[in-house]
Amino acid sequence: MKHSSQRRKLVLSAALGALVLPTAWAQKPKFPNRVVKMVVPSTPGGGPDFVGRLVAQMLSVKWGQSIIVENLAGASMQLGTNSVVKAMPDGHTVLFTPPTPITIANFFEPKPPYEVNKDLVTAGLMGRNPALIVINSQVKANTMKEFIALAKKEKLFYASPGQGHAFQLTTEIICTKAGIHMTHVPYKGSSPAVMGLIGGEVQFLVQSTEAVKEHIKSGRLRALATLENTRLEAFPDAPTLAESGLENLGIMNWYGLFMPIATPKDILEFWESELQALSKDPGFRKKMFDMSFDPVFYGTQDFLSIMQKERMQWRDVIASTQVQTKKE
């Protein structure tokens, strides 16, 4: 009888364990448990695409789970962004984006398709990319001062990666401060904009370093200035705007990772910790530096502060310059 009683206790204990264990698993699911989709809201070949694919590749290897990168461009990057807003909020669909659809695009829409503060949450800023002012090497100007003087005498055109892009607004700020006017020619992405500049369709472009560095080295493009507050080690001959007679703009060309607002806190924190760890990985840092990117990381709270400051800055810029845009 004693052995029978002990046996019943063991059976009961095992049965209870079988009931409790799945409940514990349900409370703390393994993540990711299926393929992850990373939406990049711009065309292939630009900074967000390069860095997004690097992040996806290295996390995929670490997790043992596929991360598919989907380029979904259009509507000032709002098309791809809105697709993530509408996605299942379980951390398996994320947005990897530059500032345009987060801090700028909504200001051009009377009824925007999403509201950043209400529809998206961020896991952090993952890298930044210094920007340069570049011109076609055939343009008769070697400095910003010479280019400004030329723009006051001739009709010139400038390119951007698209209507409402941060680089369009940056150029408008520069024009306002320099007292010049140039006609905007929007392209569908960074690569076409660079090709338009090389081909002589336009004379002026603000662009990230990785998209223009080889063309500067080849002599097809000339760097007039950097938008950074100090000269870049990779382009020591490109002065700052302040050195060129204009004030520095203090604009950061960052890349951030976002998810739908209802994403569970533990999933968000997991992404944040994984991005932070990746930013310290020697292999990741080397690849970022090789592509002229800065592997800096800002966590959720610090990045939110940066975004809020930039949104107010761009709001004021748009109001003061009266820039008009339309969806691509």
Q: How would you describe what is shown here?
A:
With 328 residues, this protein is an alpha/beta fold. It has two domains: 36-128 and 253-321, 3-Layer(aba) Sandwich (D-Maltodextrin-Binding Protein, domain 2); 131-226, D-Maltodextrin-Binding Protein, domain 2 (3-Layer(aba) Sandwich). Helix content is 45%, strand content 19%. The strands form two sheets. Strands 2-1-3-10-4-11 form a six-stranded mixed sheet, with helices on both faces. A five-stranded mixed sheet has the order 7-6-8-5-9. Strand 1 (36-40), helix 2 (47-63) and strand 2 form a beta-alpha-beta unit. Helix 7 packs across helix 12. The protein is globular, with a radius of gyration of 24 Å.
List keywords for this structure.
328 residues, alpha/beta, D-Maltodextrin-Binding Protein, domain 2, six-stranded mixed beta sheet, five-stranded mixed beta sheet, 12 helices, 45% helix, 19% strand, globular
